[in-house]
Structures are given as C-alpha cells and as structure tokens.
Amino acid sequence: MSLSREVKCLFFKAYFLSGLVKLTLIFLPFRKVLSWQGQINTSTPQNEDPTTAAFRKSLQQAMILCDKYTLWKTECYTQAITAKILLNRKHIDGTIYIGFKKDQNGKYLGHAWLRSFDRIITGNIDIYSYSVHSFYS
C-alpha cells in the first residue's frame, strides 16, 4: 500500500463514520439530518487555501477508497456528509451541494457533492450537468 499514513487514517475514520451516517439517514427523518448540515444557501469561499490543500487531497483519496471498500453502498449524499464531518473536525470549511437533472426518459436524478475551497472532495461526477437546488455550509 503506497498510501500515506494520513490517507490510511482518514480511510478508517471515513469507513466507520460512513456506516454511522448511513444508519442515521435510514432511521432519522430527512428534515432532522438537513438541520445538521449548516446554514442553507450559504456558501464557503472558493479560492485556493494552500494551508489545508494537503489534508483536503488526502480526504478526497480516503473518500474514494471508502466508496470502493465499504460493505454497504455509500451514496453521494452519505459520502458528502461523512467528508463534511471530517472537515469540520479540522475546522475546515466545506459546502454540500444538492442538485437535480432530468435524464433522457424524463426522470429526475439527484446528486450531492462536497466542495472545500477550490477542491471537489466527493461526488465529482458530471456535477455541471446538475442544477443546484440547495447548498449547505
């Protein structure tokens, strides 16, 4: 394993935390979970922050590993919440975005992603095709 010690540590934290987040999303009302996300429609700065760049990159790598190796399905919203909690522990700003788009059959698809300063930490899959419905910081 050629991963840094920080990435490995963040992976284990994210692995177990994502399980707790998943259980929370299953058993608690969605409105309750939304209240924990921060202020609605308030965004964090989008400029570069070199002082936290290494940690945010490590967290991004850990979240990719977490999605790959968890025994449960870690949807985009679960990943975004998990990563935001880990950012908050280091007092680093992050914004969760929730967006929607219509597919070719007319069905609405939802997606969530987490941005911290200039880096998309989770959910960086075709995010520009989604219309942002709400965001929390």
Q: How would you describe this protein?
A:
This protein is an alpha+beta fold. It has one domain. The chain contains four helices and four strands. It has helices at residues 5-27, 30-35, 53-69, 76-89, and strands spanning 95-102, 108-116, 119-122, 131-136. A four-stranded antiparallel β-sheet has the order 3-2-1-4. Helix 1 crosses helix 3 (53-69). The protein is globular, with a radius of gyration of 15 Å. It starts with a helix and ends with a strand.
Total domain count: 1
Overall number of strands = 4
Biggest beta sheet attributes = 4 strands, antiparallel
Main structural class = alpha+beta
The helix content, as a percent range, equals: 40-55%
H/E element sequence: HHHHEEEE
> Compute the gyration radius: what is it?
15 Å
How far apart are the first and last residues' alpha carbons, in Å? 34 Å
Residue stretches low in confidence (pLDDT < 50, at least 5 long) are none
- The tally of helices reads 4
Widest sheet: strand order?
3-2-1-4
Morphology: globular
How big a fraction of the residues is strand?
Answer: 15-25%
Mean pLDDT: 93
